[in-house]
Amino acid sequence: MMPSGSTENSGLAEASWRLALEAAGDCVWEWNLRDGRVACSENLREVFGDPSAEGGMPDWRDLLHADERREVLGQLEACLDDSLAAFEAEFRVRCRSGSPRWISARGKVVARDEAGRPERFIATFRDITASRARIDHLQASARLWQFALEGHGDALWDWSLITGEIEVSPSFRAIVGWQDGRPLCGNDIWPERLHPDDLRKAMAAFSAHLAGDRPITEVEFRLRVEDGSYRWLALRGNIMERDVDGRPLRMIGTVRDVHDRHLGIEREKRQEQELARAARLIHVGEMASALAHELNQPLTALRNFSGVALRRLEELGAAGARIREPLKMIAEQALRAGEIVHRVRGFVRKGGLVAAPVAINGVVRSTVRFAEFEARAHAVHFVLELADALPMVQADQVQLEQVLSNLIKNGIDAMSAIPGERILLVRSRLGADGVVEVAVIDRGEGLAEAVRSDPFAPFATTKPDGVGLGLAICRTIIENHGGRLWVEASTAHGSTFCFALPSAAA
Amino acid sequence: MTGPLVCVVDDDDAVRLSMGLLIETLGLPVRCFPTALDVLADGDALERVHCLVLDVRMPGLSGVGLQERLGKLGRGVPIIFVSAHGDVPMVARAMREGAFDFLQKPFNEQVLLDRVLEAVQLAARRRQENAWLANVQGRLDSLTARERDVMEGMVGGRLNKQIAEGLGISMKTVEQHRSRVMEKLQVDSLAELVRIVVRSCRQED
Question: Which of A47, A100, A291, B51 could form a disulfide with A27 if both were Cys (CB 3.0 to 4.6 A apart)?
């Protein structure tokens, strides 16, 4: 700071120098080592925090904070001894105003005698309390953030892209399972420990960010931890420093262990798949049941006809001998097919009915309630005409609800395109012979041509994604209960589907 | 045409036709109907039917419904149910209502034939019983009040003398009534008289 050189130069520039120093807030201290006298600038008192002190200027060496005293005085000595070229220190000093101040000092020996002994030493001091406080504040803030992040389970990393070295927080090491504090390279972690299936995705995320296509790196991947297993981690990273050409130099980020969440997601996916497969199996089971049911008729006819043929053959006596064997085969194969049908139906039957006395009106009301949502979505209104004092029926309530729900849904679908009022009427009454009858009446356009002849036949549907088993299954259920399911009417103004069940007393 | 008739009721055309042909191989006349209501509309069939083979599930009136209807009409015709179903509640109900048998489709056709034959024979026996009963009842109805009193005394094993005393008539009158009873009831012995009276009472139960 002080120019070395001629006295004239210093003389001329001295005033300017003084002004400059004082404007900067620096104070100057000059030590004449020959006579031990000390001179300093006017503002020394201010810098050292004692503007109103009476008496002489304080010797700053006496004000040194205990923590820095030895270091600073040692440096001063070394500088005087010429073992240190310059004196540079930051230290705290006591001051009368209260809290210690931070001072930044720089000094040099500016004149030595022929023997090399120091003659004059000059130092400047600057009050850096404020900027020092800012640094302290930042450090505290950083520590607080680190604490908070690690407290949340996020681990930190600081990666130098030039050297490849990476600094990681203790919690990061804990995640991977490193017991020691070994120095690390980025490559020790990624791509080295990445799961092969996640490699491409992870590297792509880094590349996109580094190339500037993405604001941050954000990616989840599996990392191989010390015990050999893989754990799911969520990584976020950001480029912190670039060089003058804009190339990334340093990247910092966090890593979070999300393994349990991933396990949960995978478990849910597996459960969904199993449910879907089970639903398909039930579907298949019901299909098989419906198929078996429908096969019974032609198989019965087949057996009967072959029986007839064989018996008529007897009348031909010997002439019929050559036909008898193949005919017998036909009869036997028909028998075999019939037994297969029996077995299949036994196989898919799900434990049969769980029957109990059931009040039909209650079933209607609860099924209608469940269907409200669907009805409202199609602007369909329910009207219920339920007879009082209906006898109970011996039934499996869940299965009855299935049937009613199916009929109601069909009714809603049937009216999906009509312009007028969409009213779905559900009526219950006592029928002839003590049966309990329920009717579902819609105002749709009636049954489509394709299914009109037998809407209950399996696979009869006009819906593009329909399988056509709903009504077939409904019929099976109702008939298993000893009842009947039929179409009472179907015109261009609507359809009426009815089912009747024997009352429990019967 | 007379004689025992088997009626087949099934809404499936192939099944109905094949069952008809099959039962014909027994040498029995068969008439086939697509629905139960068609049977009820055929008076001649209802008169002559000795066995009904019904599908349980049919549109309109079901097999069980027809069974109940026929029961109400007093037609005690043996009914064989054939069904694609075999669930216990339905079988139990059908049997409770007095079905002769219940076969699950597809069935062994020999079993059906055997059962049809048995049913027809049962029906024939029942008709004979009914005819006989009607006959006896007619004859019993032809007795006068006095003749009836005497008959009851005879069946009760009382001597003519006791009958005369009980009724306050002479023994000769009793003997006259006695002959008339034997004549009207067309029996040759007291034992025979007792037999038919007992039998007719049992039938009425």
Answer: A47
Share of chain B above pLDDT 90, in %: 24
Q: Residue B25 sits in which domain range? A: 5-127
30-89 of B, contacting A, C-beta below 8 A: 56-57, 59-60, 62, 64-65, 68, 82, 84-85, 87-89
Q: Does A335 touch chain B (CB under 8 A)?
A: yes
In chain B, DSSP finds a helix count (H) and a strand count (E) of 10, 5
Q: Does B112 or A470 have the greater pLDDT score?
A: B112
**End-of-domain residue from the set B98, B127, B156:** B127
CATH superfamily of A7-127: PAS domain (3.30.450.20)
Residue A374 near residue A412, CB atoms below 8 Å: yes
Together in a domain, B75 and B120: yes
Residues B29 and B65 in one domain: yes
- Which residues of chain B are within 8 Å of residue A473 when distances are taken between CB atoms? none
**Burial state string for A73-107 with b = 16 or more CB within 10 A and e = fewer than 16:** eebbeebbeeebeebebebbbbbeeeebbbbbbbb
Confidence of residue B106 (pLDDT cuts 50, 70, 90): confident
Q: State the pLDDT at residue A262.
A: 86
Which residues of chain B have a CB within 8 Å of the CB of A296?
A: 84, 105-106
Q: What is the pLDDT of residue A416?
A: 86
Burial class (CB in 10 A: 0-12, 13-18, 19+), A114: exposed
Read off the pLDDT band of B119 (50, 70, 90): very high
CB-based contact, B110 to chain A, within 8 Å: yes
ipTM: 0.73
Homologous superfamily in CATH for domain A135-257: PAS domain (3.30.450.20)
Judged by a CB distance cut-off of 8 A, whether residue A43 touches chain B is no
pLDDT tens for A182-236 read 888 888 888 889 999 999 999 999 999 988 889 999 999 999 999 889 999 999 9
For B22, the closest of A304, A342, A394 (CB atoms) is A304
Rounded to whole angstroms, how far apart are CA atoms A22 and A45? 12
Q: Say whether A305 and B18 touch across the interface (CB within 8 A).
A: yes
DSSP B5: E
Q: Which residues of B touch A341 (CB under 8 A)?
A: 106
Judge: B89–A479 Cβ closer than 8 Å, yes or no. no
Residues of chain A with pLDDT under 50: 1-9, 351
Helices (H), A212-320: 259-316
Q: What is the DSSP letter of A194?
A: B
Chain B environment of A310 (Cβ under 8 Å): none
Give buried/exposed letters for B69-86 (b at 16+ CB in 10 A, else e): bbeeeeeebbbbbbbbbb
Answer yes or no: do B120 and B167 share one domain.
no
Asked if the Cβ–Cβ distance from B90 to A293 is below 8 Å, we say no
**B40 in the same domain as B85:** yes
